[in-house]
Fold:
Amino acid sequence: MTRLNNLDSELAQELGDFPEDDLDVIFTPKECRTLQPSMPEDGVELDSHVRDCVHTYLREWLIVNRKNQGNPDTCSLKNKGSRKDFHKTLQKQTFESETLDSSDANFQVGPRHVQVLPEEASRTTLASCDFDLRSLQPDPRLENLLRQLSTEEFERQNEEARRTNRHAELLALYPSVEEEDAVEIRPVPDRPKEHLGNRILVKLQTLKFDIEIEPLFACIALYDIKERKKISENFHCDLNPDSLRGFLRSHTPSVDLSSQARSAVFSVTYPSSDIYLVIKIEKVLQQGEIGDCAEPYTVLKESEAGKTKEKIEKLKAQAESFCQRLGKYRMPFAWIPISLTNFFNLSTLERDIAEAEGLNGRSSADKRTALLQVRRPSERSLSSEDNYPVSNFKTTSLTLSTFFKQEGDRLSDEDLFKFLADFKRSSSLQRRIKTLPGTLKLEISPAPENLGYCLTPELLPVKPFTENRSRPHKEILEFPIREVYVPHTIYRNLLYVYPRRLNFANRPASARNITIKIQFMCGEDPSCAMPVIFGKSSGPEFVQEIHTAVTYHNKSPDFYEEVKIKLPAKLTEKHHLLFTFYHISCQPKQGASVETLVGYSWLPILLNDRLQTGHYCLPVALDKLPSHYSIHSPEKVPCQTPPIKWVEGHKGVFNIEVQAVSSVHTQDNHLEKFFTLCHSLESQVTFPIRLMDQKITEAALEHELKLSIICLNSSRLEPLVLFLHLVLDKLFQLAVQPMVIAGQTANFSQFAFESVVAIVNSLHNSKDLSKDQHGRNCLLASYIYYVFRLPDPQREVVKPGAGSSAILTESRYYTFGRTSAASVGSKLLQSRVISCSNPDITVTQAATDEEVKNIMSSKPVDHSSSRMSFYVEGTKDMQSACSSPRPSNKKHFHEELALQMVVSTGMVRESVFKYAWFFFELLIKSMAQYVHNIEKQDNPRRSRFSDRFKDDITTIVSVVTSEIAALLVKPQKESDQAEKINISLAFFLYDLLSLMDRGFVFNLIKHYCNQLSNKLNSLSTLISMRLEFLRILCSHEHYLNLNLFFMTSVSAPPSPSPSLSSQNSSSCSSFQDQKIAGMFDLSAEYRQQHFLTGLLFTELAAALDADSEGISKVQRKAVNAVLSLLSSHDLDPRCSKKEMKIKIAALYLPLVGIILDSLPQLHDFTISDARSGKGRTGNSEEEQESAGAINQNVALAIAGNQFNLRSSGVSLVSLPYRQSATLGPDTTRNLLICFLWVMKNADQNLIQKWIADLPSMQLNRILDLLFICVSCFEYKGKQSSDKVSTQALQKSRDVKARLEEALLRGEGARGEMMKRCRIPAGNDRPAGLNENLRWRKEQTQWRQANERQDKTKAELDQEALISGNLATEANLIILDMQENIIQASFAAECRDNLLGGVLKVLVNSLGCDQSTTYLTHCFATLRALIAKFGDFLFEEEVEQCADLCQRVLHHCSSSMDVTRTQACATLYLLMRYSFSSTSNFARVKMQVTMSLASLVGKSPEFNEEFLRRSLRTILAYAEEDVVMQATPFPVQVEELLCNLNSILSDTVKMREFQEDPEMLMDLMYRIAKGYQTSPDLRLTWLQNMAEKHTKRKCYTEAAMCLVHAAALVAEYLSMLEDRNYLPVGSVTFQNISSNVLEESAVSDDVLSPDEDGICSGRYFSESGLVGLLEQAAELFSTAGLYETVNEVYKIVIPVLEAHRDFRKLTLTHSKLQKAFDSIINKGQKRIFGTYFRVGFYGSKFGDLDEQEFVYKEPAITKLPEISHRLEGFYGQCFGEDAVEVIKDSAPVDKRKLDPSKAYIQITFVEPYFDEYEMKDRVTYYEKNFNLCRFMYTTPFTMDGRPRGELSEQYKRNTILTTMHAFPYIKTRINVIQKEEFILTPIEVAIEDMRKKTQELTAATNQEPPDAKMLQMVLQGSVGATVNQGPLEVAQVFLAEIPADPKLYRHHNKLRLCFKEFIMRCGEAVEKNKRLITADQREYQLELRKNYGKLKESLRPMIERKIPELYKPVVKVHSTRESFRNHSFRKCDGQTSSQST
Structure:
């Protein structure tokens, strides 16, 4: 490595220059729950097994720790703990959006005056400057704005200001990577500890019966009735008052404190609703049955006086005498059950169990953490349900008043379970069993974590133990119903004895009241009874004997006694249980003793050296037992002399059960055998040894031990888990322990290894054991982490052969490690250069490994000579070692383990690699201990481990890698397995970096990467695997040193070969420059120097470059890996120095290159945000609803992207562009924050040098990137749930303008790039792309909403604070970057195309929601730019100038003073420089005016008050500007401001109409009209209108506004140049709408398009025209007017053809195809508008009075809806009482109206066409488009009623003509003409009959036929009961020929109508016949009959002709007055229109 300069080496050291040893081996004492650990009794020589157990339970944990655990993980702010105070260090950033108060003063509600706007008002009347600016007070000015400063000085000051008060750690502000994307970490396993279930504390408070006459004793236990099992030991409790306790004084010599407990802690591992707490109550034995003894309790009451009192006293005296005589015997008395259901959260239990099942399988990390907080399932790997807590129920006090009496013949547990089952079903128990009244009070609560003063089941005090001499609590041991898989960690050795039943029925003697005395004997002498039996309540802790309760006069009693015994640690054959049976005489007889001996029985504790447990049925001996009886079991006693007399001739009559709870006795044959054999090896034993019932000689020992090792795994899982730590310790001991048995060397290592593998396999496969998120079995993980330690290098054990007397003095130690390896591993090892696995080949030459050389440090690798398993001491004398191998007596565990892994085969090998994590962690821990033990600190890492060990490691890594590759090709389950193995391997290498030579480990990593890529085809899987692997390695705490980060920067040696990129960059002037450019590329040299980072970047680049299935997940992973790394540096206190950061950032420079390359794939936030109301969560409802319906491009159009310019006509290929899938928004954001981090922390000089040398194309890329960054890190506002503020936020964004930026990038590189990346060549991507985009957005919205629900206000504020700071910091970094670009490019004179780019970014950032801090700096930079490049800005960057004006103006209306001050200064400077460069600032004037117009139109809560103040401030600047006073400038400024002020006045009017959409539109329409002479402004207002319409979902009108705008543009384009492919002004647009002609240009003399500032907007260009039209087409398409879409594209296509823009043409034609498809598919189903005539009457309406309009409402609007809307709105204006809706459509008589009221008349109208028009209007669309005439009819009679008899019913048809044709640019149009005509009754009848006939025809000819419809129409026509039906009409009008000849023709017409009608009826009846079902036959007959009748009735009238009409034709000169001819024509037109 080259010499480092001083600074570098200092820094490297500070970062903790690689400490020689990272790993620290520490011993931590085991935490013990009790004050003293549980130990065997003192002074006993323990046998080796017990000794080992106790040793295992007591020894400390051995933990291998990383010394620098101050690594990023732990100090990281990511763990929310430390993050909680982090926000306190932040400054609050102020955002205008959050200060806006939605209840702005200017929104006035309540009555207000409504004015109408006359259509033709000229601009001047409106804009009279009705508000004097000078009356306002200006804001404070920036004092040095007008001072003349050099630009350099100005820039320097700006930079200084920007640099102060910045946040040092960018990523501390950034939300941490999501759980699922975080780098994998190995969770620290839980410490093995004693298992405790759900703990319940039960406190007994009182136990009383109605009379208190004798002491009572309670005994409590838990029972599970479903499992029929007692699930806890007994708790004995004495609640007697002292007076009663005194009765027994003679029987209780001492009372220990522990026996006075009245509260117990029960533990329940598997809660269920079947658990009962049963309290049994006993009393002192007395004469009589239980029932007799209980009698007084049921009859007497303490409270009663007199006789009762005497009785009670008598009973008391009686009880006292019994107590004195029989005090040590008890009798059963009563019991009481309590269900514990309510104390377990069972409702959730069921559900949770299901979840837990999933959890024990592959649980997701977060689910697991949630559970870990509840109770750590891994420390007690129980079956699944265990993981669920008892609900934290409240402490409950219970008072029970009924006890059940015990039945003497039903005392067994079996009986109890029956009782409980009955009790659970109902309380029916009470009917069958006698009850006793009494009181039991107890309190049940969850046991607190640390309960003071508590004793364990062994009576050891638990911490914290307060000696306050009150009663202690007792922990009660649980007997779980199922296995509990938790390894033993404490010494526990208890025996429980349960006498069950005794059968003396056939024994003649008088044994009736039987008790059994139970003793634990250590010999046969009576004095050998050991005090190891736990005492009951109020007595000594330990007793020597215990008596069972007596059932009175019962020869075969049941017992329920539980005898708890503390087993001695060392058991011998002499230990046994002795049972002595007595008859107790209850009546005192003279001289007779109380006890009469009845018999004996016994049970030896050991059988064949094993503890005896289980059920026994023992015989009972009648006489004294012979000596040595205890050696045999009573069933097998050999014949004695004299013979023993047995009850019932040696039959078993005494049933007993013995259970042990022991952490010493395994109670499993396989384990027992294994331990016994191991100990026989370790300690000196005499052979043959006895094992169970077999004898083992020394010769057979090896064989037997091997067998027992193999059988270990056959033992039951529970004992195996319980003794897991000891079993594994022993196996590892055997693996390395040198054994010489009978003179032969025994090698167990392979067997031991295979057994470990089998155990690991079965533990992983067990369903009942939990695993962590990496699938590691929790028990094994904690074993390795805490328990495992290198097997002690014990003295070697030599078992001399029987005959040989010579003990070998020289130690012998052989193993045959590898002899088998040659064959087994041959395939495996072929991959090595030299086979060093075969002991027959001795290799002495050293092979150098080329690859190692290439990685950082080259070193020759020697392979030590031969491969037997002896250790060569000393490394110096290699050669001599080879010639005389001298075996040493050490065999290292890590070497042995690695060897066994390499040579394993078959199933073993499969399991080894499947659960590789276990063996890897074993290796690491053993290596760490090895290094720690040999303390080779001075030895270089390289020689710590032997070369063949390294070879083994290489092989293992290589095999595991190929295993991973093999699994990945298989189905899902296998590939999940592969992921886990991959992670294990990564952690293994991660650990090796801390132990072995790093060059060696790097080589392994490299091999891994190469090997994987050779084997895998799927790119995404490959990258994903390698990424996961690298992320783990990169999370190493010395990651930076591993990467030699200090070798970066310019001081690094020049690269020997310049990287490719640097050769390409033409501008490089010198070698140094090449080097700088090269630093930003991922060069081969970089990868060599910075190995891990190089690999990571390679993967990142590959992931971003790929475009295969499922790659997006991988990309996210790759980006997050880099992000996590950067976060860890930011949060690492070692990296906080600035110099250090610069060094680290230099390491990440190639990231910049990678990000720039992936530019086209980034998610473009500018678009998606605008789509969704800038991604706000609180979108207003309209927007959200519409999102579903709008096709994506329309959505873009609507959002105000002025025209959806995906590409403009000119196609400049400026960037080599690669097509790839776009990244998701989250991934993009993470990638961009990385970019900003590098830019923030890298050396700024270096960046400037780099920028100076970049070609402009690359610079443009950087600007594009910054542009996206701005939108990406925009502040999103508080995620508050209150709707108001979010809407306010949303409104304050002017979305439209941002979109213009994004999409109308003139010809800039970014525009081109956007166009190309949006529409990849050759496939129709855009649509899909955008849908994708919408989907994502909705998804993120859902997420945000979800996350937001349960946050408190404080949390929200804190989040807002942090995200505000992030937004500010990110934007400031972007600003710094732009300054760098400006300075660098200014120096390089290539600023022409850059300035535009920089401005775009600045303008974009001004359009986002920014903090005042940022805005201050941004405006300062802007002013510097204006000062520096002013002239250029105004000449070239016209578009930018417009945008800039709009943004600055927007900020001039800000409510924040700071922002306003800055914005005013900037705007003034802009004008000033513009003036000085052209001495006339017409262009800026124009831009500002337009900007204001568009601002006003768009932003509803825009505050004109602030803007006025800003205008006043600018005026003040102009007046104070001394330099400019001599010029016309101040006057021009004042003129401009006055104009702006007048526009503002319009706005105020608009504000008034905010609630009245029609009025608002009228006003906007009129403002737009006022700008007829100023095309730019008119265009702006038309766009404003379009936007408003879109918001109201009036898409047709919005489209029309854009068509008008396009026509306007067309007019001016045709004035400028005559191109035949362009439209000829507005005439061309006539097909779209006849209204467009309004846009035809005002005569040329008024306007010349060449004048400066006129028509200079971006739309006045061909691409602008196309854009407007395309957007209009999208809107038409949304509105369903597909025919119009075609018309619009007819104008667009020639332009596109002329531009040869084939991609656009493809798109256009595909849209046309869609439109035509829609016409075909939807056809008649489309519904267009509904029209209403609305008339206003009353002076309240002001100018609206007597005005009539036609309103266009959305389709299917009903009359009540519009009526309600208008009534509601005007009711608000004038007060609800003042407004009235006129219900009919008759003409309104003004005189009859109340002058104080406002009247609205609303009538439904239909489009009306003349007959000739109908010929052209064929389709449904044509009948609904371009409408300007409407008709409504009003029925009336001559006497004023609306309706009357047929003969007097007239109709008035009214036809209205509107000023413009619908659809227009607004939704209501004035009525300009009204004509009426009247139909006489007969004409009305003709019209009705025609209608009926048409209906019939339609129903008959309908395809497919609709029977219901047909029958409905028929019923109305021929039904007998139809009122005013056809028959009645005929009878009124056709019965006789009219007298008036004028009516002849009508009569005849009606007759013909009927003729046709009856014919159609006939057809319909026939048709119906064909359609009906069988059940409708009668109905059909009825119809037919009615039809016949009708036909008959009508026939005479139809056949009668009027003779006069059929005379020869004579010219008639009469004039008809009753009707006008054309009325018929109209009617016909109307009827025929319906028939078509």
Q: What stands out?
A: The mean pLDDT is 76. The longest helix spans residues 1353-1388.
